[in-house]
Amino acid sequence: MIPIPVTVLTGYLGAGKTTLLNRILTEDHGRRYAVIVNEFGEIGIDGDLVVGADEEVFEMNNGCVCCTVRGDLIRVVQGLMKRQASATRGFDAIIIETTGLADPGPVAQTFFVDDEVRARTKLDSVTTLVDARHVLATLDESREAREQIAFADQILLNKTDLVEAAELTRIEARLRRMNPLAEIHRTVRGVIDLEKVLGRGGFDLDRIVALEPEFLNPEHGEPGHVHGPDCGHDDHGHEHHRHEHDQKVGGHDHGDDVAGVSLRLDRPVDGNKISVWLNDLLQAQGADILRAKGIVDVKGEPRRLVFQAVHMILEGDLQRPWAPSETRESRMVFIGRNLDEAALRAGFEACAA
């Protein structure tokens, strides 16, 4: 049985999640979606704002998404799977719209911790919508908004028609510092090719191909540009960069507690050492490490070791062989709160074979 893909739509209050969801449900694409709406409070509102005659909306009225949501979400998904098995025509995918005040971490974890849910579904993407007009103030004030950015594998910078081009550039620079993994799309009223939102495999180990493609970097000469390996800079066999986040953005000082740390090593690593280090690291600091991804060159192994983590939950697998044209090196990115770059780099380099 092919697992059902699950897309999580998150974003702070007013970012445009329901507008995008309604577009997905009304466009003529021939697919059917089951929708789960996580409401805030006991009186459901968002579910009544979701259109689409064929799609069924399941409400979870448990307020902010926290640890208790996993049990509720597991029960809803299990119920959906039972109905799917008996339906004449089932649904093609599941979409979860979280409340604007939600930390999406527990939702993402659900699809890794429950065996039945994991066997029947597959977390495809966490897409975060951002209100371009208000995002800088929101990020300064709201930890939930920062965590929504951190968990995304894709960010829709929405309402860009309300913001000047120079301001959009500053906003994108801040988002990249917080999450160097997520691709950023500029949108107006959530209008985007739905193929870029649905079925993108952002959480799929098989489709992790590169951690720092050029679109993650501002153009040469722009603030925040990071010199990559093609810029002619060498750092004694390894390269690392953390996007500093104590700069002035939008005319005021800010200090995000969420940021990304990127590490690179051009020497093969010891397979046992890297496994022990990653497991110990996540057990000790998993509450602060929100997301992590990596492609690892294990000594004596012709295949690439690919891993990702959500908080303390780590999954990894040996994927396809290294191609002759590829540079064999290890790269990983950590996104989290108050990360110690020097300690992470030292631990990573200590795994060298």
Structure summary:
With 353 residues, the chain is an alpha/beta fold. It has helices at residues 17-26, 46-49, 69-86, 105-113, 115-120, 135-141, 143-151, 165-178, 271-285, 341-349, and strands spanning 4-11, 33-38, 57-60, 93-97, 121-131, 154-158, 183-186, 238-242, 248-249, 252-253, 258-265, 289-296, 303-310, 313-321, 330-337.
Question: CATH H-level name of the largest domain... which superfamily?
Answer: P-loop containing nucleotide triphosphate hydrolases
Number of strands: 15
Shape: globular
* Secondary-structure class: alpha/beta
Overall structural domain count: 2
Which spans have pLDDT < 50 for at least 5 consecutive residues?
40-56, 58-68, 211-254
Mean pLDDT equals 77
Largest sheet: 7 strands, parallel
Strand content: 25-35%
At the first level of CATH, the class of the largest domain is: Alpha Beta
Percent of residues in helices comes to 25-40%
The helix-strand sequence is EHEHEHEHHEHHEHEEEEEHEEEEH
- Computed CA radius of gyration, to the nearest angstrom: 20 Å
What CATH architecture label of the largest domain applies? 3-Layer(aba) Sandwich
In spatial order, strands of the major sheet run: 3-2-4-1-5-6-7
DSSP helix count? 10
What's the CATH topology label of the largest domain?
Rossmann fold
Q: Gap between N and C termini, in Å?
A: 40 Å
